[in-house]
Every structure is written in structure tokens, then in C-alpha cells.
Amino acid sequence: MSWLSYPKALNRALADALAEDETVCVLGEDVGAGMAGVTLGLRDRFGAGRIVDTPLSEQAFTSMGVGAALAGMRPVIELQIPSLLFLAFEQIANQAHKFSLMTGGQARVPLTVVVPGSGSRLGWAGQHSDQPYSLFAHVGVKTVVPATPSDAYGLLATAIRDDDPVLLFAPAGALPVREDVVAPLVPIPLGSARIHRPGTEVTVLAIGHLVHEALAVAEELAGEVDIEVLDPRTLHPFDWEALGDSLERTGRLVVLDDANRSCGFAAEVLATASEEFRLVAPPRRVTRPDGAVLPFAPELDRALQPSREQLRTAVRGVLKGGWAW
Amino acid sequence: MTQVSSPTLETPAERYRMMRLIREFETRALALVREGLIVGGTHPYTGQEAVAVGVCAALRTGDQLTSTHRGHGHVLAKGADPGRLLAELLGRENGLNHGRGGSMHAADLSLGILGANGMVGAGAPIAVGAAWAAGRRGRDTVVAAFFGDGALNQGVLLESLNLAAIWRVPVVFVCENNGYATTLPASAGVAGSAVGRAAAFGIPAETVDGMDVAAVAAAAGRAAARARAGQGPSFLECRTYRFEGHHTVERRMKLSYRDAAEVAAWRARDPLLLDPPAEAASIDAEVAELLDRAEEFARAGAVPAATGASRYLYADGLRARAGAGA
């Protein structure tokens, strides 16, 4: 038994992959020193030839990862800041992701991109606080958002072994989470959801760090309503079966999603649930506002993120609401 | 991936033959565009043949290249089967990419052809990555990155030059300066010079006559030798010209951004007329026959079944959810 932190879990997944497979390498800014915490100590153990400090050229080194992947390696790219994904969007969405189809299955691009700290870290303001996972799920890049250290380990281990590009968002809000690990850390398949708390009356599907917020609210409201907390873990491919099963039990859905509202991931979950699953009340979502840009002042930053109060209101809303309203 | 042998392009006759193959391939492709069998149009390589052939003459089996939207010449010169390339342009199952890529994404990874690419400059960092990976794995692979003068103004190309230089990556950067980024003259779009960009990163660079296959092959040979000797990247600016428009659609548009005298002057420097071998006529006949068979093969190819439209989307066979009509 040991206490495992979230960054340490990612670090261990990288170390295990590097030790097990010589084609695995890490490319990114300040990865040698381990500035983001995820690669600490790896250069000492595996050498600067495999833990490669890059200049500040996100577009070129991301696509370099594509080329290295085409040449048979399994590169892991670290992008320290979520907004760097906007710079490298072409390389991930238009190159890495499309090679398999465009080449008629000749090319495999086993590239992993890790963003160690997506979303708000309070005080980092407009250009360092985005949560752009919906964009990548939309274009079809395999996208994972682990909520816990053992899931972070297991999903990164699987991402590196996957023959397609995989993007792993480590939400900043989940980085402080520590876990009492009793079982061996193992790879977790993509597209497999996890029920953190079974319940019978309302399904709260929460993404990333918001899983922990949902659990807190579920405990708080335990005397009032029996909430099931469902963590998809992977946004694409998504475990629709697990959502359908959960809604068979509860019939009521709230989605807790740190993305912006319009065209955000919660919108897809609500749409599919409405189209395909049993709902006894209109579903609700708690998200950032439309087109949110997080302001600097902590009070303003927090004001735009999904809150426990909003979740409580939404849960009570789906409990009361029927379709005839 | 099994490696397939690249063609030898050592003798003047072999080089002439490959240039003729590219020229005639493009002629047939244009006819198929007019016939309506190639949809969307293509970007003809006509006029630039000496660059692809000269550079590929310096590449060996196992070497790789990244290509551009104007990629037929590179793909053929590295050894792709003309019938399968033509079938790809027709969108058939027997095409190089099973009809999933078309002209702008033609690839044959077994020959080290990492793909034509629809984004200007996008092949350069992919070439750097492939070459870096090969070096890490102890192979003496050289990767040629083809791009045009338009790419000289793409940030990702400049980033790639820097990465290749600091890590001494075995890449040959090949700038095919055909004078125009679509319709924008290089003189209006490029401050400084092509080789000046390379020099700024300490990369050995030279400008060669891109209409002279022997000159291109000699320069590419020097660059490839440097790469194989562990001396890192080189940069070639090949001055050339496209005899056709930017793309086949342009023929119908009657644009006037190039002076007729300019086009005529470059056509007079046709690489196929520069120094044809004695056996040119018999080579031409052999190429024509080869392309007859290629066209027959391509036309006979099956149209892909609509049910397979998302096949190959993921390497592991993950199926996308149904969209339209579901």
C-alpha cells in the first residue's frame, strides 16, 4: 500500500513504458528538468537521447513526433500548457489523426500527447486556463481525461501502446489528488467508464477533476437523493453503453463538464442521451459559459467554472422536472 | 513494413526515362481530369521533373521522403507504381491508398514515401522526425523533405530547419522554387532568400538549376553524403518552373498572373530537351506502353464500397459512430 500522487502516476507510467519498450521516447519543453512534474528523474534514468528537451517550437516538435511514429517509434509529446494545443492543432488533428485513413491504412501514428495541467490553475489567466478536450473529441482524436492517479497511470500506459494518436488531458484540478493504492497499477482500456459511486436516482456524469466535485456533492446530498457518479475517463471513444446502463437505473442525467457550453462535450452527452436512452426528466448540464475566457482575478476565474452550487441546483432540477413542463 | 527497392536513377538514360514517365503520367492525368474521371483536380508537376528525379537519384532503398500537394513527380521518382498512383487519382480500391487519399495524399510507405501533403510546409517536420527516429535506431536513413517557395514563409518550416540543425538530423531540405506560391510571385512573397533562411540556421545550402537533372543529382548527392556521414541537414534550392497552372482547375479560369513570354522562356529550358540520350525515342515508346498498361489497370479498378468510407480511420479498427442518416 502506498500513497500515489497524480503526477507521480503519470511519471511511473512513462518510466514503465520507457523501460519496457525502447521505441518509447519523450519530447517536449523542459522535460529533461521535469518542469511539469511528469518527467521528473526520467532523463537521469533513460538519458537525454530518449527524454528530449525541445526548443519552443510546438508545431515542429509535435509533427516531428508524427514522423518518428511513422518511422516506428512511440513518441510521447508533452505540451505544458493547454493553449499550446491551439498551436499544434494542425499537427494533431490534420496530420497525426488523418494519416491512417488518408494512406488507406498503410500508416500508423502511435503518438501520445500529454497535457499536464489543463483547465484553471487559478492565477494563470486567459491563455493558460483552457480545457479544450471537446475540440479533439470532435475531430476524432482519441481523448482521455483521467480523474484519479491509478486511472492516470492506466490510461497513459494504454495510450502509449495504442497504434493511433491519443491525447491525455491531466486536469490541473486533479493533480493534487492522491490515492491509497492497494492493487497493482495496470493499463486501462480506452472507452471504458468507471462508476465511482453507485446510485439509483440521478446519474451525474462528471469529467476529469469534476468527478471529485460530484462525489463531494453526492455525499452531501446523500440524505436527499441517491446519486450515481459516472466517470467516462475517455471522451473518444466514449463508453455509451455504460451511460445507457446507468440511465436504465436512474432515468435522470446531469453532466458536469469544465468545457465551454456551446459545442462542449456535455452537449454531445445530452444529445445522445436524449436520442437513445431512457430519460424520465429533461437532462441538465453544468459547464463553463458559452465561449468563456477565464479572467485573472481568482473570484472571476472561479465564477466561470462549474460549481458545487450549480450542480446541487441541477440535481434538484432533474429530480423535480418531468417532460411535461 | 517490408521495404521495396527504389529505382536506380544513375545513368542519363535512367533519369531521362523517369522524367519522361512523370511528364507522360501528368499528361494522362490531365486528360482524365478533362474526362471527368479525376474529380477535384490535381497539381501538375510538369516542368519540374528534373528536381524529383535528381533528388531521388541520391536516395537509396530505405531512404524516405515527404512530398507536397504537387507530389506525383516525387512519388513516381521514389518508385511508386504508376498504375497504382493513377488508380489512386481515380479514387479506386487498387490505388496506392485504396482511394482514400487521392492526388494530395498519395503515399507508399513500403517505398519510404511518407505521403504527399495538402498543407504547405507540413512535410518538413515529419521528415525531421522520421530522420531523427532512424538515427536513434542506428540506421543511416536519409529523408528528403520537398516543399515549394510558398513554404519558405511557413513558421513550421523554419522551426524544422532549427530542430534539424541543432540535432544534426539527416534531412535534405529541397525547396522547389517554381517562382509562384499559387499566384503570388516569390519576388513579392519572399524577403531575403531561400538559401539565406538555411544559412541563418548554419545549414549548408546551395542553389541549383532545377531544370538540369545532372546538376540536381550532383547537389543532392553531396547533401545525402553529408547526411549519411552524420554531418546533419543540407538545403537545396532548385530553381524550376511549372509549365501548367497551379492546379488543373486553373485551366478553365483563364487567370493571367504569368507573362506568356516568361512561360515560353522556361518551356524552352524543358528538362527533357536539355540533354536527351540517344535512345530517347525508344524510351519514350516504352514509357507510353507502360502508361497504357497503367491506365488500363487504373480504369479497371473497383470503386470503393460506400460501406467502407470510414475504414482505416483508426489503426486499431475502432469504428466511428454513424453520422448522416443514422
UniProtKB/TrEMBL annotation, chain A:
Cofactor: thiamine diphosphate
Keyword Oxidoreductase: yes
SMART domains: Transket_pyr
UniProt keyword Oxidoreductase, yes or no: yes
Keywords annotated in UniProt: Oxidoreductase, Thiamine pyrophosphate
GO molecular function ontology, one term from the record: oxidoreductase activity
Protein name, as recorded: Alpha-ketoacid dehydrogenase subunit beta
Source organism (scientific name): Streptomyces tateyamensis
